[in-house]
Amino acid sequence: MKKFISRLRVRYGETDQMGVVHHANYALYLELARVEWLKEFALSYKEMEENGIMMPVYDMGLTFKKPAYFDEVLSVETQLLQPPSVRIKLGYKILNKHEELLTDAHTELIFVNSKNNKPMRCPDDIYRKIMKSN
User: In the beta sheet, which residues pair with residue 79?
Assistant: First the structure.
C-alpha cells in the first residue's frame, strides 16, 4: 500500500543529556505522522471528533534500531497495513537524513462512537477516501 512521508526536526526538549531522543517522544512522532497521513486523504481528526468519531490507540509497538539526535531531521514513513474495519492498522519507519532505519513501529486504533463509547465500523466515507489512494 502507498507510503506517506512526513518530516520533523528533533527539538532539544525531546532529548536526554546525551542529545538522544527519549523513547517517550516516539509516540508523539507517530501521532504527528498519523495526523499528516489522514490529511493526505482530506480527513481531519478534529472534524472526525466533531462528527462523533474517536480513534483511540489500542496497540502500539516500537523497535529501536539506532538513536535519533537533537536537531536531526527525521522522515516518518506511514503506511496502511490493511483495509480499515473496526480497527485501522498503520506501520511506520523512522529514518534519518541518510535514510538509515532508526525505528520500526506500528499502531492499531479503533473507531469508536463518541456518543455511546462503543466500537464501530470505519464510516463508509472515511473508508472510501483512504482506500481510493491505497
Answer: 3, 91
- Candidate CATH numbers 3.30.200.20, 3.40.1190.20, 3.10.129.10, 2.60.40.2230; the one for domain 3-132: 3.10.129.10
**What is the chain's mean pLDDT, rounded?**
96
Complete DSSP assignment for 15-27: B-TTSBBPGGGHH
Length of the chain, please?
134
Mean pLDDT of 59-81: 98
Domain boundaries, the chain: 3-132
> 75: which 3 cell numbers?
522522515
Q: b/e string for 53-86 if b means 16 or more Cβ within 10 A? A: bebeeeebebeeeebbebebebbbbbbbeeebee
pLDDT band at 6 (very low <50, low <70, confident <90, very high): very high
**Is 124 annotated as catalytic?**
no
* Whether the predicted model's global pTM rises above the 0.90 cut: yes
pLDDT of residue 1: 75
CA separation, residue 128 to residues 36, 50, 71 (Å): 18, 19, 38
